[in-house]
Amino acid sequence: xxxxxxxxxxxxxxxxxxxxxxxxxxxxxxxxxxxxxxxxxxxxxxxxxxxxxxxxxxxxxxxxxxxxxxxxxxxxxxxxxxxxxxxxxxxxxxxxxxxxxxxxxxxxxxxxxxxxxxxxxxxxxxxxxxxxxxxxxxxxxxxxxxxxxxxxxxxxx
Length: 157
Hints:
Blueprint: E1 2-4, E2 13-17, E3 33-37, E4 43-46, H1 56-64, H2 67-78, E5 81-82, H3 83-88, H4 94-106, E6 110-115, E7 118-123, H5 125-154
């Protein structure tokens, strides 16, 4: 089943392909992929989970935006966990969990360790510290703006 987006002035538009109701070979339901139609009408399919962003802060918050990735991060803060152990607790394929781990790794939130044949995933607290620092800067900026507005509105006309 396809749902089509609006055309934006004859330019590129996006539609989502939903394969809900048609399970994949492993029995799991497929996620939503985005299909971009360019001006020539040819389809360029990409998985929204693996699109790269050059800004480290965007990668960091995009990684934290997904509930599964936040759960993986929470579980790896306690100690190193194998990817197969992580995958066993989610209703998705092993490859999908590996992609989630790769997104977290590219954001600097986890690192992979090689222990024999296993790949262990371990949280990187410095990545969370970068997220906290960015949020603190935004909070300070907005508190300063709100204080300035309060002062402006409290003056007598």
